[in-house]
């Protein structure tokens, strides 16, 4: 089975973007970490990034369909700034029935007030916030546990 790892706007700039907040790891480093973590669980990580909201909606729907077919355990999503703005992403998650773990590299609750609200959290199975890029590993492990528990 697979797990989809989705990154939203500006996460292609990881490594050079505000390294004091987001760290030195690049998106490629994150993809490598995800593939390694997934492989350790017998899973394949499908890592994607887009700056475009509608593309993320399409991928969430695709991930939901793969999960429904039993070919995926769900998805990990760092939606970047769309987290704080996007009803469309919220509706894509609930509408597709996707098992989703929301990830934020930084602790959004210790930052500006506009980062404190997430449209995605009510639709998420779990949330990982503030652990740096290590959060992607934690999210995959948590998603795997939820998927295993759902089978019992
Ligand atoms: C982020 C936090 C968001 O507020 C921000 O817009 C990002 C990255 C994080 O991973 O900490 O782009 O999702």
TrEMBL record:
Keyword Cell membrane carried by entry: no
Pathway where it operates: Metabolic intermediate biosynthesis; chorismate biosynthesis; chorismate from D-erythrose 4-phosphate and phosphoenolpyruvate: step 3/7
PROSITE patterns membership: DEHYDROQUINASE_II
Catalytic residue list: 22, 104
Residues marked Transition state stabilizer (site): 17
Enzyme Commission designation: 4.2.1.10
Enzyme category, top tier: lyase
GO molecular function terms listed in the Swiss-Prot or TrEMBL record: 3-dehydroquinate dehydratase activity
NCBIfam families per the UniProt record, alphabetical: aroQ (TIGR01088), PRK05395.1-2 (NF003805), PRK05395.1-3 (NF003806), PRK05395.1-4 (NF003807)
Similarity annotation: Belongs to the type-II 3-dehydroquinase family.
Assembly behavior: Homododecamer.
Name this polypeptide is given: 3-dehydroquinate dehydratase
Gene that produces this protein: aroQ
